[in-house]
Amino acid sequence: MSNDSKLQQAVFDELAWEPSVSAAHVGVTAVDGVVTLTGHVSSFAEKSAAEAAARRVKGVKAVVEHIKIKLPGDIRITDDEIATSAAARLSEDVYVPADCVQAVVEEGWITLNGEVAWNYQKEAAEQGVWRLPGIVGVTNLIPIRPTVDVSNIRDDITHALNRSWFFDPQTIEVRAEGGRVKLSGTVQSQHERQIAAATAWRAPGVTEVFNDLVVA
Fold first, then answer.
1. Nearest to 143, CA basis, from 179, 185, 110, 109
2. Which of 122, 133, 163, 204 has the least C-beta neighbours within 10 A?
3. How far from 186 is each of 50, 55, 71, 176, 192, CA to CA, in Å?
4. pTM, whole model, 2 decimals?
5. What is the CA radius of gyration of the chain?
6. C-alpha–C-alpha distance, residues 184 and 209, integer Å
7. Any idea which of 48-57, 126-135, 157-166 has the lowest mean pLDDT?
């Protein structure tokens, strides 16, 4: 069996393992580490779960996603209905500041605009709408406008990393310019790399995190 065939089968197996994906409706091809997904699913959330499942398979270098969203039966959901549901979902989310985020819907695609002070609020707004029925995608254009002094961001993040038992403080360098943070150096695993980025995002005033950490 060729390497492409082995990778294709591994992605098939991972899709079948993922309970939120109907793997029977998803096609997979693999060429030199590039995996293409085709077929159809019933929601944007399932589409995102299928892409995430493919990306976590060892050997996958990139994913080309051509999955269509096909609502079950004769269900039809209008843009007005999606917009109403999105507005309600955002207003109910305790992590999303009231009246700070707006959702625009065009042909099932939601675009989020507005302004928040923290990255977790931006992520909460996106996560709040991407499981709504009838949507075909989400674009998150919400900018982060910090309301705090950003002069100590580098020190704050460095201290937070040093507190964690995950990291050797000698292997990670933190640079900050305003709210833009860059992490460089080495970590022991992809999990540690993700935790380091999440730690940086928790610092007050952070607007962007560039994660250049390498798994050694």
1. 179
2. 163
3. 30, 22, 45, 18, 10
4. 0.70
5. 20
6. 11
7. 157-166
